[in-house]
TrEMBL record:
<dbReference type="GO" id="GO:0016020">
    <property type="term" value="C:membrane"/>
</dbReference>
<dbReference type="InterPro" id="IPR007816">
    <property type="entry name" value="ResB-like_domain"/>
</dbReference>
<keyword id="KW-0812">Transmembrane</keyword>
<feature type="domain" description="ResB-like">
    <location>
        <begin position="68"/>
        <end position="548"/>
    </location>
</feature>
<protein>
    <submittedName>
        <fullName>Cytochrome C biogenesis protein</fullName>
    </submittedName>
</protein>
<keyword id="KW-1133">Transmembrane helix</keyword>
<dbReference type="Pfam" id="PF05140">
    <property type="entry name" value="ResB"/>
</dbReference>
<feature type="transmembrane region" description="Helical">
    <location>
        <begin position="216"/>
        <end position="235"/>
    </location>
</feature>
<feature type="transmembrane region" description="Helical">
    <location>
        <begin position="124"/>
        <end position="146"/>
    </location>
</feature>
<feature type="region of interest" description="Disordered">
    <location>
        <begin position="1"/>
        <end position="45"/>
    </location>
</feature>
<feature type="transmembrane region" description="Helical">
    <location>
        <begin position="493"/>
        <end position="512"/>
    </location>
</feature>
<keyword id="KW-0472">Membrane</keyword>
<dbReference type="GO" id="GO:0017004">
    <property type="term" value="P:cytochrome complex assembly"/>
</dbReference>
<feature type="compositionally biased region" description="Low complexity">
    <location>
        <begin position="557"/>
        <end position="590"/>
    </location>
</feature>
<feature type="compositionally biased region" description="Low complexity">
    <location>
        <begin position="7"/>
        <end position="27"/>
    </location>
</feature>
<keyword id="KW-0201">Cytochrome c-type biogenesis</keyword>
<dbReference type="InterPro" id="IPR023494">
    <property type="entry name" value="Cyt_c_bgen_Ccs1/CcsB/ResB"/>
</dbReference>
Amino acid sequence: MSTPSKTGPEAAAPTAGPDARPGAAPAEDQDVSAAGSQLSTAPREDAPHPGLGVIGWARWFWRQLTSMRIALLLLLLLSLGAIPGSLIPQSGTDETKVADFRAAHTLLAPVYDRLGLFHVYSSVWFSAIYILLFVSLIGCIVPRTWQFVGQLRGRPPGAPKRLNRLPAYTTWRSGARPEEISQAALALLRRRRFRAHLAGDAVAAEKGYLREVGNLAFHLALIVMLTAFAWGQLFKSEGNKLIVEGDGFSNTLTQYDDFKSGNLFTQDDLDPFSFRLDTFQGTYEETGPNRGTPRTYQAGVTYSVGAYGKDEKSLIKVNEPLEIGDSKVYLTAHGYAPVVTVRDGKGAVVYREAVPLLPLDSNVTSSGAIKVMDGYRDAKGAKEQLGFQAFFLPSYGGKNTAVVSQFPALLNPILNLAAYHGDLGVDAGIPQSVYQLDKKNLKAFKDSKGQTLRVNLKPGETMKLPDGAGSITFEKGIKEWANFQVTRQPGSGWALGGALTAIFGLAASLFIQRRRVWVRATEGPDGVTVVEMAGLGRSESAKVPEELGDLAGVLYDGTAAPPGADDPTAPADPAHTAGPAEPADSSDSPVAPPEGAEQQ
């Protein structure tokens, strides 16, 4: 059996020889430190030497920039910098909201302008954080990768002179020859997937390289994610188009109702395709607490790719877009488009179209405007323009109910119209919404009571305008419309792959421990073999002593039975005794099983 080691300061600090330099680490401490070297590829963060001047400070700054601490700090700053980009209206996303914010906050708006908070993602400070994070990650991962490749090409370092100074240690005496113990240990460690080899008088083994692989993969994944996000922001595009049943769309800039894109996007990046909305189908819950909730919500389209592509059918559902090239076509909204016919004073048809109206609530109470801009003449033959303020209720509840739809489906459709005539203002060159009437230069038609002429029409009914000014008919064929959002987000696949790789890499770096094991078998003064076994991990963990105890037990059982095994004072298991110990004393029993492997 081995003698227990000393504890306290005397055991930790051997006496230095007469030639030792003041402040120098003891030779044995240096030996143990060398055994644990290169368990990580993390660079050392040394303070700058005062005599190196600018070069020394530059090296120190570079090491700080490429350290994990600074990388995490920059990542935190990047996350914090994105918060105002989500809370404050952005000029590249919604100019109208930015203008409204400026009008409502006259004191804050100039401050936000100076800080670049209306265009966070293209501001100087956000770009600086982004670039510094790139430099930090690249400057960290490149040297560490080369260092790790060098470690893989090399071999685990040899055993320290005194294995009992390592945190996990055990020893026993055996009747087998030292060569047999070494070969058995080498075979055992290799079966346990250690990289093992004979180094001098001991077997050196190492395991857990996937920890550093995960660490490097995590850093690389962050670079991929940042690159993918930047690429996506610079080359992205997003447009919306409202299409009535039977109408079509071609993927060109002039076809969109609104369109926004990244700074490096060009029209040539648009995927060449077109599609037609054939039908829209929407069904709703008719009873219960979820009454009115959509059950089916899908658009049937016919699309083709390229100028001479073959027509193909497809269904576009919520969260199930149509994918064409790098573009995705999402179904985002739905509404109704009543078909109306307007006739002039002589009965000639001057307008016949399906007019999309915008929903105001979940039951699709809708509003909009009907504008007759050209071709209309009044009863006297004078040219004029007509405008109708329209409200549509797909399920009107009757006179004794609120003037809102009671259900989103077409159960009792009513079109409410208020008629105006005059100048719509569309010829002034000033943009205006197609869903609103500019009544500045319009006059309302009056009914017999002198009120604005307003009539509820059912499908097939007609409203006559006063003084033979014409009529408007609500046709029986009510069409539906769907709004589609066409997005192009390059790099999203790379971003997803980077995110998954970062998760697995982080898990590997957290749950896999890199550790080393040494086995030394030497012949004692009494001719009995003394076996020492020690382990060392990058950080203190119960896994290293537990694994060492298991390996020691298997090696002890697999080698020749020692003489004196029947000695009742000898422990029966190689993992009973714990802690670092001095090599076995020849005054002990001839052979003892190995001590348990535990932390000091």
